[in-house]
TrEMBL record:
The keyword Repeat applies. Residues 1-26 form the signal peptide. PROSITE patterns: LRR (PS51450). This is Disease resistance R13L4/SHOC-2-like LRR domain-containing protein. Keywords: Leucine-rich repeat, Repeat, Signal. Residues 50-197, 207-291 form the Disease resistance R13L4/SHOC-2-like LRR domain. It holds the Pfam family LRR_14. It comes from Mesonia ostreae. The keyword Signal applies. InterPro entries: Leu-rich_rpt (IPR001611), Leu-rich_rpt_typical-subtyp (IPR003591), LRR_dom_sf (IPR032675), LRR_domain-containing (IPR050216), LRR_R13L4/SHOC2-like (IPR055414).
Length: 309
């Protein structure tokens, strides 16, 4: 019962912060700017004016061949259908900026994805992907890439060529490492790596100087490198359910940190200069091995912070 309560606290706070952070992005077209069509036959009749097409939850088994008619299309939502095969008609949409393919049955992302070179947001989470093509690096305008809940074991080095990328979501895969070229994502603000197989915190991640949110929950991390202190813009760090026994001294230099979830590890104490985390608003540290005296010290040095032990 106690474990359930602790897990519930963590989930509620993670969800709440996601609503207020970079985790929620426009997956819907703006009806105030463009008319949103949700019936393909109606859209075909007005094909030259169609910029937003919402075909989610329509029991589709194939990507419609008629898509090639919509050369002005910028937004396409095919979420929650039964799609598993790629069609050339999709890659003829040269003006497409947002593509949502979440909750389908795709097993791979084809090389042709690079032909959509105006793409800013690609959501293909909750599919059955096992690999990402090297051509992903040609998507120079891509800002949001959602790949969570697939079966990925690796990413290509070329992911680091997506220089505009701000959000990279990779939770619930089978990843144990990221390519070294990940350090090239100078604009990355959100990195979600929870529920994978990471055993160590790669020092290259500490070179992501724009990072504001990092989620590494439910992995197998045993320690954090001293270099984590270089993430000077980090506001949210979620690292619960790992195997941490100690935090590095430089941890106290994360002075932009607003929320820290570090529950269900094996920590006994925090760094001495914890009081330097003056922007910390929420600290969730249930399920560790802190003594009563350490809990009291933390509450004393962080009087404005909501703390949960």
């Amino acid at each position: 019962m106690k474990y359930f309560k602790n897990t519930l606290i963590i989930c509620l706070f993670s969800w709440a912060y996601s609503l207020c952070s970079h985790s929620i992005y426009a997956q819907s077209a703006n009806p105030l700017r463009n008319k949103v069509y949700d019936k393909l036959n109606v859209a075909v009749a007005e094909k030259n004016d169609v910029k937003s097409l919402n075909l989610r939850d329509q029991q589709l088994f194939f990507i419609p061949e008629d898509l090639k008619e919509f050369q002005e299309l910028t937004f396409l939502n095919l979420m929650r259908n039964h799609l598993s095969h790629w069609e050339s008609s999709l890659f003829q949409l040269k003006k497409l900026e947002t593509l949502n393919l979440k909750l389908n049955s795709f097993q791979y992302l084809p090389q042709e994805i690079s032909e959509l070179d105006n793409l800013k947001s690609l959501d293909i989470a909750d599919n059955s992907l096992t690999q990402i093509p090297r051509s992903i690096g040609k998507l120079k305008e891509l800002q949001f890439l959602h790949l969570s809940s697939n079966s990925l074991t690796a990413l290509p080095e070329e992911i680091g060529d997506c220089k505009s990328l701000e959000v990279l979501e990779l939770a619930h895969n089978q990843l144990s490492y990221l390519p070294q070229n990940i350090r090239g994502l100078k604009n990355l603000k959100t990195l979600k790596l929870g529920f994978n197989q990471f055993h160590e915190f790669d020092r290259e991640w500490a070179k992501l100087k724009s990072l504001e949110e990092l989620n590494l929950e439910h992995n197998k991390l045993r320690n954090l490198p001293e270099e984590i202190k270089n993430l000077r813009h980090l506001k949210i760090l979620i690292i619960n359910n790992n195997e941490l026994t100690v935090l590095p001294k430089g941890f106290s230099e994360l002075k932009s940190l607003e929320m820290l979830i570090i529950s269900n590890n094996d920590l006994e104490k925090f760094p001495e200069k914890l009081s330097d985390l003056k922007n910390l608003q929420t600290l969730i540290a249930v399920g560790n091995s802190f003594s009563d005296s350490e809990k009291a010290r933390v509450k004393e040095v962080l009087p404005e912070c909501k703390i949960y032990f």
